[in-house]
Specification:
about 180 residues; alpha/beta; Rossmann fold; 7 strands; globular
């Protein structure tokens, strides 16, 4: 039987999030200390995240790297990056600068989203990477003081996205996200 919308729909985390935001919009999606965010708000932020990436020219098959601990922006990246059609490369924050540089170089990362706790490590790694990578800095995790010389801060990046952006759903369950 030939696959079509009547007999086949790829199951992906993106369809899970869209459905959960529709069915349980006011339930907590994220609980991080005193911070709480509903499924509806999470979905909206991820759509804006995807739109902001698309405005940078990020599209199908491009790589977006994230260097952050387990914080809400990492959660948003797991949905927002594939919503733009891109591939998420969540970096191990315990690697040294050479290891991070190797991964960034070989993944052809176009954007690096980095928690301000790891800006020094990211700067060291980026010095050894040949391609230009836009850096978006998450300003709040363990070091609440803003990084004054960041290219773009995460919240401004999210706010620049279009809330009516049409996300790109994977064509098949096996598509890279």
């Amino acid at each position: 039987m030939k696959k079509n919308n009547a007999n086949f729909v790829p199951l992906t985390p993106l369809s899970f999030m869209r459905r959960t935001a529709a069915v349980y919009p006011d339930r907590d999606a994220i609980v991080y200390g005193a911070f709480r965010q509903t499924w509806s708000d999470s979905y909206k932020r991820c759509i804006r995240f995807a739109s902001a990436l698309a405005k940078l020219g990020i599209s199908s098959g491009d790589t977006v790297a994230v260097m952050a601990p387990n914080i809400p922006p990492l959660f948003e990246a797991h949905f927002g990056v594939p919503m733009a059609g891109a591939v998420l490369n969540a970096l191990n924050v315990r690697l040294d600068a050479a290891g991070i540089a190797y991964i960034l170089q070989h993944s052809d990362a176009r954007v690096l989203i980095v928690d301000n706790e790891f800006t020094e490590l990211a700067t060291q790694a980026l010095a050894d990477v040949e391609q230009d990578i836009l850096v978006v800095t998450i300003q709040y995790a363990y070091h609440p003081d803003p990084v004054s010389d960041c290219e773009l801060d995460y919240e401004s990046f999210i706010e620049s996205g279009d809330p009516d952006f049409s996300l790109r759903m994977p064509d098949a369950q096996g598509d890279s996200i």
